[in-house]
Amino acid sequence: MEKLTVSRGKNALYFKYDGEVTLDVTPELKRHLEAELADNEVAAVVLDLSGVGFMDSSGIGFLVSVNTRMRSIGKACYLCRLSPKVRKTLGLVQLLSYFQVVENEEDVAALLS
Q1: Global pTM?
Q2: How many helices (H) and strands (E) does the chain have?
């Protein structure tokens, strides 16, 4: 996936996707995330959504499943730098408060220290 960037920081896996998060891409996003989590011990997953212009219900489901999985194993999931459209979408479905939303990587670093 050329629109996907995966990197690692202090105890965190940073996952950034640019484009639309729809049913067409969520299965592949899940596979990439599962592979990264299987190979690496991390305290948190950080999903950078600054480049997401549209998200359908499967994209919302992807975010919920990542958050649920990480919480179930005692780890964190952060949504970082939400694009205005993603913020609006999550607000409309009343899920914005379900997630831990941070504005930048420095906020994540402070939470992980």
Answers
A1: 0.92
A2: 4, 7
Count of CB atoms within 10 A of residue 6's CB?
15
Cα distance between residue 62 and residue 110, in whole Å: 26
| Residues 32-86 pLDDT 10s | 999 998 877 889 999 999 999 999 999 999 999 999 999 999 999 999 999 999 9
Q: Return the residue matching tokens 């995966």.
A: 6
The secondary structure of residue 69, as a DSSP letter, is: H
3-state secondary structure of 53: strand
* Torsions phi, psi for 78 (to 5 deg): -120, 135
Farthest CA pair distance, the chain: 36
